[in-house]
Amino acid sequence: MNKMREIRIEKVTLNIGTGEAGEKLEKAKQLLSLITGAKPVTNKSTSRIPNWSVRPGLELGVKVTIRGKKAEEVLSRLLQARENTLNDKAFDNYGNFSFGLTEYIDIDGMTYQPEIGSMGLEAAVTIERKGFRIKRRKYLKKQVPDRHRITKEESMEFVKSKFNVIFEEEEEK
User: Going from the N-terminus, what domains does the chain have, and what CATH number goes with each?
Assistant: First the structure.
């Protein structure tokens, strides 16, 4: 197989939206650093919503982005917490996918922390091929051609082969 056609994980972003600043936000920071070993950053609101007491610049959530081997290890642990099952609707048309966990204690190796309490998180996984740098570089930026983009089916096959994920279709209500 051509090395340029190989699919890889670019990054895994873990996110916890607390909805308010203060103690809950600090607990979320602790949790993300406990799971990944990396330092999380805060997400700030950009708009004003008076009914929810939200103003621009208010810290409402935390996130951490991990790359490389560490990202694969964390993703593997997160998928095991979901019993290696994903919904096929979790994938977008460009091959990226996201899912959530309702409790962090489902993650392998994590125990309940009384100072943190119970908290869930979201994981967003970005997938790419070699050559995707052309859309981010500073000099001579270009778009990734359609023939080099990753489709939803290719991404699902990659996740299935690499992490032994089983896909389930969402039933109509």
Answer: 3-167 (3.30.1440.10)
- Cα atoms in the Cβ-side hemisphere of radius 13 Å centred on 85: 6
* C-alpha span between 59 and 5 (Å, rounded): 40
Residue 111: is it exposed, middle or buried by C-beta count within 10 angstroms (0-12/13-18/19+)?
exposed
What b/e readout covers 29-49, taking b as 16+ CB neighbours within 10 angstroms?
bbbbeebbeeebeebebeeee
pLDDT of 172 reads 55
Count the neighbouring beta carbons within 10 Å of the beta carbon of residue 155. 20
Report whether pLDDT(63) > 90. yes
Contact, 51 vs 132, CB < 8 A?
no
Distance between CA atoms of residues 160 and 137, nearest Å: 31
Give this prediction's pTM.
Answer: 0.86
The mean pLDDT value for 44-72 works out to 86
Helix (H) or strand (E) holding 165: none
For residues 25 and 20, what is the distance between their CA atoms, to the nearest angstrom? 7
